[in-house]
Structure prediction request, 221 residues.
Amino acid sequence: MPKLSQIELYLDGNYSQEDKKIFLFKSRCLCNFWEREVSKLKFTSKYSRINVYVTDGSTEVRVQAMKVVPFLEVVVNYPIEQISHLDDIQLQQHYMRILEKALSAAVSAMPIPLEKSLDILRRFEASNYENEWVQSERVWAKKSIKSKVIAELSMHEFKLIQFVYVDCKLAGQIIIAKTQPRELLFNGFLGELSISKSDILEYKKRKNILSQFDLKSAKFI
Prediction:
């Protein structure tokens, strides 16, 4: 049985294509936060993904299995006016209310851990709507080397920053990647840290080297 691991928000009904694009892209900050936190619950269900369609009232409200298995479709009525004129906080608050309605409705089709799922939303709000995580962190005590890679996902961009510490002092930092806030664009940068035989601190995704720090010269290459 698959694990519930994805949720996606779409504007449905009589909205402009531009509003639909803005709505989708900016929603990933909250949705990604929820996905990463709910994955820690290791909750299994016959549905691994919930697609939420937000209608202005012109679409029938429903919860049903999609033809693409194992996706669940949830349609909620939640009119939003002038999306392009909303500031980030206002839009985040709308996203939270929409997810609350969608998750509450999804209970009718799957035994979702509702209270824990809603608690994730509350924690996101308490963190001032910030989505940041440590993608990779390693310590090599014998070499007095520590490095960590921090991922930051906002409503506008994804950013990956590496910090290198030598003898407990910051020796260098670098922005490894900047992309639009879509997993399709930034998942290829979610890698791991290691040190090569030639004393090069590397951050890479599989065989793709994304950054190199020469430990002998204490500089990024």
Summary: DSSP finds four helices and twelve strands in the chain. The radius of gyration is 20 Å. The longest helix spans residues 17-39.
